[in-house]
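Bench log, entry 3. Co-assembly request; chain sequences pasted below exactly as received.
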Amino acid sequence: MSGAMARRRFLGLGAGAVLGAGLAACSSPLASGLAGAQPDTADVIFWNLFTGGDGANMVLMEQDFRKSHPGVSVEATILSWGNPYYTKLALATASGTPPDVGISHLSRLPLLAAAGLLTPVSETGLADLGVTPDRFTPAAWQKATVGGTTYAVPLDTHPFVLFYNVDLARKAGLLNAAGDGLKPMRNAADFTDAVRAMKDASGRYGAVMSITADPATAWRYFSMVYSGLAGPVVTDSGTKISVDDAAMQEAFAFLQSLTKGGLMPSVLNGSGANALFSTGKAGFLFDGEWQIPSYRLVKDFHFNVVPFPALLGPKPVAYADSHALVIPHNPNRSAGRTRHAAQFVKSLLDDSAVWAHGGHVPAWLPTQRSTAFLDQSPQRNYVQAAFTAQYDPPAWYTGAGSDFQNTVGATIIEALSGRTSPKKATAAMRADLKRYTTARPPVTMK
Amino acid sequence: MTTVAATRPAPEPLAPAAASAPPPGSERRAGLLLSAPFLIVYLLFLVGPLAVGIVLSFFNTTTVKSGLGGWVGVSNYSKVLQDSLFWDAMWHSVLFTLFTTPPLVVLALAAAVLAHRMPRGRVFYRVAFFAPYVVPSSVVALIFLWMYTPQVGLITKLFSGLGLPVPDFLGSTSGGWTAVVLMTLWWTFGFNFVLYTAALQDVPPDVYEAAAIDGAGPWQQIRLITVPLLAPTTSLVLILQILASLKVFDQIYLLLGGGPNQSTRPVIEYIYDTGFTSYRGGYGAAATMVYFVIIVAVSAAWYGLRRWRATSTAA
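Structure output for the full assembly:
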């Protein structure tokens, strides 16, 4: 009997000791976690969604901030790109434990702003640090403004651009006299001729892009072509369909003219496009400028990047999005923390020439006009695209990584692959849009 | 793993009188105490969220705002039930189940019987067949994605090398289904294989011996002894496989993104897309509940059928 008691006592004491040690080891995060507060583990808590080359550049920029502000600590957390990131940002902010600084695509901003998750820039003290509207690419600043209030500080513009293989372009006779760009193309016919010349030069394909299972890329491409002819596909904060049927059919017909004629493969995913373009089996690549770092790594591969020429409309259009810095709403954030957050945002803007190595056009004009950026090639070639940028139309459902892009992108892929006619694709697109314009919005849009 | 233990039929309680007598208080307390860790986790992470989900499904809840949002009654349900995309997605989950369940059961049985009859190297085959199952779905999807890649992938090169027409594995609906089913077969049949291997070890060797003396060949032994004796395991493997296949999400999401044109999107991806990507939490919860009811109905029907069969054979 006494033996059993002793064992119980021993076990009890042991359990108590382990529990005590555990609690002591993580007392502050546990305590604050149970109380529902965010532990202040650093002066600036920063969330972003950058991995790969962008992630490495962001880490450099964070280090530069630490060097220039030795008294301010920064803790950066990288979350999965796209939807997982936005879900976490929204949930954390709604439950009162947001980061001090976050990243948002400007295309995702309208919903976050309408839900009251963001602190207006005017309340962050950024203006006192010299962060004023006149020092940004106008299109980006305008997109950061929802209902007259600016909620985000744009870091860059990342347009959909035209990559080309320099050697093949020379062979195809597409290079200009100086050899640093393409001969001017004025319309769809010029462009198609160029793609055909590239096909002859490469012996395989004129152009490639990621089509299969890549609705976002399909949507960017389609958006660019369609925007040359008509306005946004939805208006009134996403409650009204405003499709121009004739323009949309023309856009689909143009997309199909390239894939159906064999100038580009109608079935190809991202890695396939990468492989074909980087081995000289395709002259053009249609993709976002963020692919630049991955092609830089390919040995003896000469490529260049330019904005798309005007295709179906009178003027060139660049489908684009922007990474922007936001300060999520937190009623309990102290003035001191807000000041640190503003300093951090300003530092990232000043350092955005580093960011441009990822291919992005800095939205901060002092950087955009600096030699640190203008020495970067091919980045300097497509700055103009930032000024002709077409973003997703404002609505609760649009934006980078959204379900909307997946849905309409799927319809566009059907058209690109030639499985559906331009007329049917237009009708399908209307049906896709109807699903969103008639759904009950999660928040009321202004 | 409880499922393995369940392949052996539990002995029937022998004395009904003993079962009706209540156990002493101390034993009841001990029983509760011992099951407390499980119960707490079960309540906290299963029953709790389920209850929250039921409540959410009646509100316009969103994940971008705290609180429940406005009361919408059953309109989330009526919209889900009217949404053709929901039913498409539901059909895709059923289709996946129909495509994968029969081969996964048959393949696992065949492989288990063959591995069991190996005179040597049995451990090697067991490990080799089970190994893919422990690889995470994201890794499997990456590997297969590379093999299926149009123009440059291993399988597509193999087809064109042999002069066969190259199926569009990622870009067409039939190709997509083929791609995902093949990958799932390779990846998951190891689990059923282990269940069958365990059951095979329970078959007494003297039965085979007797059969051999009576002149039964190996095929007859398999057909007339092994397969009938494994019937309880087959029944278990079937229901586990049906439920697992109905829950398909990760491999389709990672390999095809539900495409092409959402023609392979399973119902869980539909729920994920509307509930999280589009922030419509209440609507997503309603879709989940509809799906939950269907899964419960399938399980209940299965068990009902088994009980009915058990009682009818006993009578």
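The CA atoms of residues 88 and 249 of chain A lie 39 Å apart. The interface with chain B takes residues 83, 87, 90-91, 94-96, 111-112, 115-117, 211-215, 265, 267-269, 271-272, 275-276, 396-397, 401-404, 406-407, 410-411, 413-414, 417, 435, 439-440, 442-443 of chain A (CB under 8 Å).
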